[in-house]
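Long-time lurker. I teach an intro course on protein structure, and each term I like to show students one example going from raw sequence to a predicted 3D structure in token notation. This year I'd like something fresh instead of my usual example. Would anyone be willing to generate the tokens for the chain below so I can use it in lecture? Attribution to the forum is fine with me.
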Amino acid sequence: MTGPSGLPVGDLPTAEPVTVDLAVPDVVLAVGAHPDDIEFGAGATLARWAADGCRVHHLVLTDGSKGTWDPDADPAALVATRMDECRASAARLGGRADVAARVHFLGRVDGELADGTDERREVTRVVRTVRPDVVLGHDPWRRYRLHPDHRAAGFLTVHALVAARDPHFFAELGLSPHRPRTLLLFEPDVPNHVERADGYEAVKLAALLCHTSQLQSTMGVDPSAGPDDRREAEEAFDRRLRRQLAAHGALAGVPAGEAFHRIDGL
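-- Reply from a regular --
Happy to contribute to a lecture. Here you go:
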């Protein structure tokens, strides 16, 4: 049991049962540290909701400028490429023509993301402008996480939601406070919610493959390989994705799913 500020009242919290499938929200904001993180964490969920009429917004916090194994790569060119990849991927997931208005970029330097006041202000601006029913983001409490941007992105999202709901935070923005209903944290340390993914496995894969600059480094697909080798690598990546979706779904007894830690009463 919690009080109005989220402070525990009475007994210590106990383990929660795993819930399945929120009612499809009208508006969603998914927040990722890097240009492909949202698709890895929640691509099937967003695709299913979009198919049911949800308006899906993406907020990418860093510029992805370090997302290559090529030491001679031009960082500025990579940033531009990854922004285009984000828009293409969002179009695959969302199926709407106004994708440019639904993909937002904070533009912080890859590998240097901070949960600072300026960053919180800008994420608050997006939350109060988009006014989502549900927000999705990284679980900042995930143990043994190596990449600092993922942890910073999780805390930045959580702290910006506190700011977005309360009127005296960042009043200079001139935007009305907004309190989403639910926060879903992907890559959860303690999963307690699953969104069904069966039927949307191929859409998640297609969205991820839009990130062509990341084929080799994150998906194990060599873009310079011949057609047969590349197809074999893509099929192997597809099998890995489907195994993960099946494992997540098994938490709730469904064929395929994406697992989250769900927080209500924001």
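Some talking points for your students: The radius of gyration is 18 Å. The domain at 24-264 is CATH 3.40.50.10320 (Rossmann fold).
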